[in-house]
Amino acid sequence: MWSSIHRALREFKNLSKDHPPDRMKGIFILKQNRRLIIDIITLLIILVIGLGISNLLTKSFRQESSPSNTQNATPTTTNEIEQEVDEPEETIYIYDSEQYVDSIVNDLASSEEEIHFSPKVAFIIDDLGYETEIAIKMMVLDFPLTLSILPFLKYSEYIAEEGKKNNREIMLHLPMEANNSSTDPGPGAIKSYMSEEEIRQTVRGSIFNFPYVIGVNNHMGSKITEDREIMKIILEEIRRYDLFFIDSITTRNSIAYQVAQEMGVKTAVRTVFLDNESDMEYIKGQMLEVQEVALKDGEAIAIGHSRINTFYVLKRMIPELIKAGIEIVPVSELVK
């Protein structure tokens, strides 16, 4: 463009020299060469507009990259502030256009993830294996429920099979000794007086008592889950078969979750017990607590039991949780 302007000016100057400075002739020459003049003026206008746009874009990019305009910018140190003050105002920032576009796309993707984020809740139904009527009602509800089945009961295997047909996750509800020694955890229980080999054989026998087991949680077990050495033995067997472990937290002094983390076993903890009381109003209140925790912390694990009132409350209130923006997921999605 510059070469065109110089050439046009040189031709105009030569034309002026070739003709006498007569007024009428000058007008004639201008008329003859008006196309040349128009071209020169057009080029100059384009040059001015181009420089203006370039300056505006440079200023805009510099403002966008300024730490004072970025809410999440990392706080600057004293040295960094001094460097920014000493920086000449005339500094022109040069941006790689491809990198700039990539950063915008990444920001948009991040925003989209935030928009689509939703709290997650998993429901576990414990104590399955004694009966089938309520168990079947639970497993055909129209949202994910994880079935935790006690071993060596009349309907343990049947419920596992039916649960698998209904695309339910199957867990072993492993009986463990409670601090109250008069309480019977049921067949297949881990007892504190057992030898290491007896504990291992009992855990294995329970895992293989019915099919499709992908995880384990404790049934009772307030005494066992406070015992680090016994929990290490149990968790070694759980890890051997690539299962996860949910600490039901039947005692505030449980160290089961902590030990599982230390051993690299995928694990999580129970957040809310739904039905320590069978009263429907109580269960509704517990469901509201599940919703509150999920919305606050982003996730929650609720444990209920094979009881008719629990079934009715779940059927009625889980759709309300979904309307509140909570996603109901299998418990395997919440173990880490």
What does this structure look like?
With 336 residues, this protein is an alpha/beta fold. The protein is built from 12 helices and 9 strands. Helix content is 51%, strand content 14%. Strands 1, 2, 3, 4, 5, 6, 7, 8 and 9 form a 9-stranded parallel beta sheet that branches. α6 (133-139) links the parallel β1 (120-128) and β2 (146-149). α8 (196-207) crosses α9 and α11 (280-297) runs parallel beside α12. The radius of gyration is 38 Å and the shape is elongated.
* Count of discrete domains: 2
Counted beta strands: 9
Tally of helical segments: 12
The CATH class of the largest domain is identified as Alpha Beta
Element-level helix/strand string:
HHHHHEHEHEHEHEHEEHEHE
The percent range for helix content is 40-55%
Low-confidence stretches: 15-30, 65-98, 107-115
Radius of gyration (CA) equals 38 Å
Q: Secondary-structure map with pairings?
A:
Blueprint: H1 2-18, H2 23-32, H3 34-65, H4 78-86, H5 97-116, E1 120-128, H6 133-139, E2 146-149, H7 156-165, E3 169-176, H8 196-207, E4 213-220, H9 228-240, E5 244-247, H10 256-262, E6 267-269, E7 272-273, H11 280-297, E8 299-305, H12 308-323, E9 327-328
Parallel strand pairs: 1-2, 1-8, 1-9, 2-3, 3-4, 4-5, 5-6, 7-8
Helix pairs in contact: 1-3, 8-9, 11-12
